[in-house]
Amino acid sequence: MLTDRIRQFLDSRRFDGPVVVVDREVVRENYEAFARALPDTRIYYAVKANPAPEILELLAGLGSNFDTASVTEIRQVLAAGASPDRISYGNTIKKERDIATAFELGVDLFAVDAVEEVEKVARAAPGARVFCRVLTDGEGAEWPLSRKFGCTADMAITVLEHAHRLGLQARGVSFHVGSQQNDLGAWDKALELSAYVFQTLAERGIRLSMVNMGGGFPARYLKEIPGVMDYAGAIFGALRKHFGNRLPETIIEPGRGMVGNAGVIRSEVVLISKKAADDDKRWVYLDIGKFGGLAETMDEAIRYPIRTRHDGGATGDCVIAGPTCDSADVLYEKAPYALPISLEIGDEVLIESTGAYTTTYSAVQFNGFAPLASYVI
Amino acid sequence: MLTDRIRQFLDSRRFDGPVVVVDREVVRENYEAFARALPDTRIYYAVKANPAPEILELLAGLGSNFDTASVTEIRQVLAAGASPDRISYGNTIKKERDIATAFELGVDLFAVDAVEEVEKVARAAPGARVFCRVLTDGEGAEWPLSRKFGCTADMAITVLEHAHRLGLQARGVSFHVGSQQNDLGAWDKALELSAYVFQTLAERGIRLSMVNMGGGFPARYLKEIPGVMDYAGAIFGALRKHFGNRLPETIIEPGRGMVGNAGVIRSEVVLISKKAADDDKRWVYLDIGKFGGLAETMDEAIRYPIRTRHDGGATGDCVIAGPTCDSADVLYEKAPYALPISLEIGDEVLIESTGAYTTTYSAVQFNGFAPLASYVI
Fold first, then answer.
1. Is CB count within 10 Å lower at the N or C end of chain B?
2. Do A261-376 and A24-260 have the same topology in CATH?
3. What is the mean pLDDT of residues B344-370?
4. Residue of A283, A287, A366 lying closest to B95 (CB–CB)
């Protein structure tokens, strides 16, 4: 959302190319909303959503924990002032030498989803804590998950038993219901699977203690979405239903939900044209596109709110595209986007809810365009 | 292709992450093959395919011209030693201030596809040469083009007349039959449209002189493709058919065709696992994926040849995925890829024909992973 602070910052400078501006105060409010809604759940911020040092420092100061995908992210979190016991190495795909480096840095909590990965962890980080990711189907998510991460619940039982046998601490399970998950029932199904893994292993003498409920907490894009309190209620209800009075320790990993709505991209209209004299749609070309930070428009999955100085006037359908010489660099085409008729070349365009998954997705120099510039204010 | 020089280079070093290695000798051979096959056509290398300084210097020395997408690419070409008269600013989507900068740097050849763009060029680069991009349907291309670039032939006539009226030099038309275009007839159709624009404008007193036939010259991926000489024959035949004895000056803009087969990516197997005990497919996770340089596997459009030390042995179907915590970072899933059964975690994997559209597509730091390292030898 466009806060007064972001508006003032944008008005105080001139920009030659696209920029994203993130308002720290919104990130703080998001953190506090999660902490209030789920007081017994530990928050692990998904660093990949936006690893800007100012954001990591803010969250470290607020007491957040951190979910990391690589050794580089672990080092960024440590540099922001968090101790290694607040870090989870949450990527299920790790080189053995990276596991060893993380362990040397003090990290001892690792995600796994295969016996092959457990063996790497047992060699490179003996005695460490592990949790196993379980496959859920991700239905209802706007940015659907494939089967890339996780394994079936039965396989998770095998994986955690194997970890236990190799001297690791089998701690629990994780799941991820899909990013931008709008169906509250998705958590219920995943928690049911989790309880099954807990119970089966308990019968074999292995006591799990932790459920990592992942992310999937939506930011506010174009559609109305349930608020954090609604999510909290649904999740708590499902926990009681499947675990009874023996509630496990719980973890969540919000990324988009923590920083998505805190950021706004300022872009510029480079060209508005038609393909033929009788074309019924305008083509609007911006100075940012799929390779400049808006990768999540892939398959038109995420529809960002767009604001212009002409808002409120008459609108007409547009195809919106990026500035590169790549024909795949089109943001919205199958479902055209209505923009003001009076929009002009050179106009500023504000793309809201772009604080997550924009800066780091940005290509290093595609077509010679610089990566997305980022400011945290 | 894996040349002896690339193999020796790879064997002489240790790599911690993925690298692409491009063999300059293959680029040289490709340039010479184009020059031999189309002696009367000027070659404009599409810099966006791979802007490595060593490649630009090699091609500048061989006499190539350059197709650029941005002011940054123009500066890179000038730094490589080519004079500005050998540069085309081929992006149809340009900020007016970027047109002015290019013109100050000596560039005076610009692509347009709309009257709105012509007006920018007329203001920022008075008297410059322009050519108008015409829409073709791109059927038969493995990496299909949308309607993002170009306009209808009738609109192109309007655009070029408008340029003429504003004091620009209306030089001709361009088209792009689609990258990896395997259907030789696609050029025929595009040249027929071009001849129609030439003839209509000639009747109105405007003499065009140039046809820019774009790129679309395939590199050798998995499928057998027609060789450069076959392309040359088909194109020359179509030119004669549609322009008779008044052959226009011609330009081609090979990018992938110049550097694609000159490069090999060296990657490492990070994990091989199954999702369930009875899974019939292995999941093979590499240390490079969609966000690390293999963006062109989007929709599994391009199927790169993959070599391992186990080639020749029994194979089995795999899903191949990248190393990031992003479920969209899967390379081949819908059409599984057969890899050797004996492939192991830690093995080297060579991905061939990756000299084009890899380094620059690479994300700046997604999940904390560094952009693809690049060597030109």
1. C
2. no
3. 90
4. A287
What number of CA atoms fall less than 13 Å from residue A225's CA on the CB side?
22
Report CB contact under 8 Å: A275, B152.
Answer: yes
Selected from 2.40.37.10, 3.40.50.1370, 2.60.120.620, 3.40.630.30, the CATH number assigned to the domain covering B261-376 reads: 2.40.37.10
Quick check: B252 and B43 in contact, CB under 8 A?
Answer: yes
More confident residue, A36 or A69: A69
**Secondary structure (DSSP) of A251-292:** EE--SHHHHGGGEEEEEEEEEEE-SSTT-SSEEEEES--TTT
Query: Which amino acid, B175?
Result: F
Residue type (1 letter), A236: F
Does an H or E element contain B375, and which?
A: strand B373-376
Mean residue pLDDT of chain A comes to 91
Catalytic residue among B132, B151, B318, B325: B325
- The DSSP code for B81 is T
Q: What is the pLDDT of residue B366?
A: 85
Maximum Cα interatomic distance, chain B, rounded to a whole number of Å: 74
Residue B165's φ and ψ, nearest 5 degrees, are -65, -30
Residue B151 forms contact with A (CB below 8 Å): yes
Q: How many whole angstroms separate alpha carbon B115 and alpha carbon B92?
A: 11
**Residue pointed to by tokens 């719980």:** A250
pLDDT at B233 over 60: yes
Across the interface, of A155, A285, A369, the residue whose CB is closest to B70 is: A369
**Multiple choice CATH, A24-260, 3.40.50.12780, 3.10.150.10, 3.10.450.50, 3.20.20.10:** 3.20.20.10
Tokens 């209800």 belong to A237
The answer to whether residue A154 neighbours chain B at the CB level (below 8 Å) is yes
Average pLDDT, chain B: 91
pLDDT in tens, A152-205: 999 999 999 999 999 999 999 999 887 666 677 778 888 999 999 999 999 999
pLDDT in tens, B156-205: 999 999 999 999 999 999 998 876 666 777 788 889 999 999 999 999 99
Q: For residue B108, how many other CB atoms are within 10 A of its CB?
A: 21
Flag whether pLDDT at A137 surpasses 90.
no
A157 Cβ under 8 Å from any chain B Cβ: no
Q: Which CATH superfamily is domain B24-259 in?
A: Alanine racemase (3.20.20.10)
> Are the CB atoms for A5 and A262 separated by under 8 Å?
no
Q: Where are the domains of chain B?
A: 24-259, 261-376
How much is the ipTM here?
Answer: 0.90
Rounded Cα–Cα distance for residues B90 and A36 (Å): 54
Residue A249, strand partner residues: A210
